[in-house]
Design a protein that fits this description.
Layout: H1 2-26, E1 38-45, E2 54-61, H2 69-75, E3 84-91, E4 116-121
Parallel strand pairs: 2-3
Antiparallel strand pairs: 1-2, 3-4
Amino acid sequence: MKKNKRVWLIIIPILAILAFMLKDSFTQKSIEDLPGDFKEVAFVRNEQNKGGIIRIYAISVGNPAQADYQACIDLLPVNDYGSFTTAYFFDKNAPYPTSLTVEAPHYDGKQFQAIQISKKSGTNK
């Protein structure tokens, strides 16, 4: 009887931790959950053979007046050691790029007009 009780005292906390981890995994926020009707429309990343990781995003915005650009850039990933992430925000009702390049300019600036450009860089440890 005592052995059975010990097993349950071990199993119940493990199951509770696993349930919390699963719930947390399936309920994480994404840019689609933020005000402003954000949608990632293009993404490019460098090969990262040497140096930092470079990520470039094109994101359409359905409601620019209510958009929370800082919260959006905070949800995008960045790594340490000289890496950086750049997000170009475009009005959903205007033309926006569907492909980007790692080399600047990352899109055709004559054809597409960004309404906001946000950058985030990693720390140099």
